[in-house]
Amino acid sequence: MVTKKIPMRQCVGCAEMKSKKELLRVIRTPEDEIILDATGRKNGRGAYICASMECLKAAQMRKGLERSLKVAIPAEVYESLEQEMSKIAK
């Protein structure tokens, strides 16, 4: 019997390793736009985060998303990510 490998990713907020399906992907598109990728298949540089506001706040404080996406992120983008995340999490 062959066991299937489960892809693991690290949350930029809490730094826990979780399966890829449990996390949300935040991407920087080639046009330098930062969006939440619910499908996990869009083109761009990606970072993974848990679907909780605590992890988003921790990532903002520790600058985890900025480090992973290699770009400075303004406060407006964090606010839009919060709004999108609240829609998905419900």
Write structural notes for this entry.
The longest helix has 15 residues, at 75-89. This protein has 90 residues and is an alpha+beta fold. The radius of gyration is 13 Å and the shape is globular. It has three helices and five strands, in the order βββββααα. The protein is 34% helix and 22% strand.
Order of strands, widest sheet: 4-3-5
**What amount of the residues lies in strands?**
15-25%
Taking the alpha carbons of the first and last residues, their distance comes to 37 Å
Number of strands: 5
Determine the mean pLDDT: 90
Shape: globular
Q: Could you spell the SSE succession in H and E letters?
A: EEEEEHHH
Structural class: alpha+beta
Helix content: 25-40%
Profile the largest sheet. Answer: 3 strands, antiparallel
Quickly describe the structure.
The protein has three helices and five strands. Strand 3 (about 25-30) and strand 4 form a beta hairpin.
Write a concise keyword list for the protein shown above.
34% helix, alpha+beta, 90 residues, single chain, 3-stranded antiparallel beta sheet, two-stranded antiparallel sheet
Which helices and strands occur, and which strands form pairs?
Blueprint: E1 8-10, E2 17-19, E3 24-28, E4 34-37, E5 45-49, H1 53-62, H2 64-69, H3 75-89
Antiparallel strand pairs: 1-2, 3-4, 3-5
